[in-house]
Write a structure and sequence with these properties.
About 70% of the residues lie in helices and about 0% in strands. The chain has about 230 residues and is mainly alpha-helical. It folds into two domains: about 1-90, Alpha Horseshoe (Leucine-rich Repeat Variant); about 105-225, Alpha Horseshoe (Leucine-rich Repeat Variant), CATH 1.25.10.90. Helix 11 packs across helix 12 (about 195-205) and helix 12 (about 195-205) runs antiparallel to helix 13. The protein is globular. The protein starts with 5 loop residues before the first helix and ends with a helix.
Length: about 230
């Protein structure tokens, strides 16, 4: 355990609330343990920790994030993501192995979606020359969380969205029966519809999508019509 994290662990242990922990674990289908620190309080404690300790050296970030990921309580994985977000401008392609490790370890939507749209999305936008080699590998992975990442990493790209890539990735996954893939298809299309409604409407009309994906894809557009 990196010494940098010891004050954070002390702060979180003091704030642990067993009454909150039970419902939080139930909400996450009992896949993870929780200290019982709700999001607003956890974020406040994390800010306090950073104010006191500063951000770590970039050279230590990989080890620190892995240490946080190894701790049993889910709040620590959220804190690893908070660190990555605060240090996003310093991240380089050397951090792709770390991000892939975080994606495939203790995987669930609560970490996957933040990693996709923030850490991975930001890094691929900053270093577009490395994007394809990793997307090409992840898009054919047996790990559906990696495939979900490929569908969601452009969520915040708006007019910079690679439309052809997005549509190709969707079509590659259109026969998947995995809920989290079908949901990701709809989410990606819904977000892009806010930028290019015509392209999304045409795509949905011209392809057979899972019912869940189609419903999610058109949800925002239908609201605009009411």
């Amino acid at each position: 355990m990196n010494d940098y994290l010891l004050p954070l662990i002390e702060l979180y242990n003091e704030a642990a609330n067993s009454e909150n922990a039970g419902p939080m674990e139930k909400y996450m289908r009992h896949q993870f343990e929780f200290l019982g620190i709700k999001s607003p309080e956890r974020k406040r404690l994390f800010r306090e920790f950073v104010q006191q300790q500063g951000l770590p050296d970039l050279a230590d970030l990989d080890k620190i994030c892995r240490d946080l990921w190894h701790l049993p309580e889910r709040e620590y994985q959220y804190s690893a993501m908070d660190l990555l977000e605060r240090m996003r401008r310093k991240l380089t392609p050397d951090f792709i192995p770390l991000l892939e490790y975080l994606i495939i370890t203790k995987s669930w939507w609560d970490t996957i979606d933040g990693l996709a749209s923030h850490s991975v999305g930001d890094l691929f936008k900053k270093y577009p020359d490395i994007r394809d080699e990793h997307i090409d590998r992840w898009r054919v992975s047996d790990n559906f969380w990696l495939r979900r990442i490929t569908l969601l990493f452009q969520l915040r790209y708006k007019h910079e969205t690679d439309e052809a890539l997005l549509f190709d990735l969707i079509l590659e996954n259109v026969d998947s029966e995995e809920f989290f893939i079908q949901k990701a298809i709809g989410w990606a299309l819904r977000e892009y519809s806010k930028t290019n409604a015509t392209a999304v409407t045409t795509f949905v009309n011209n392809h057979t999508l899972p019912r869940l994906s189609q419903r999610e894809a058109l949800k925002w557009l239908k609201k605009q019509q009411t």
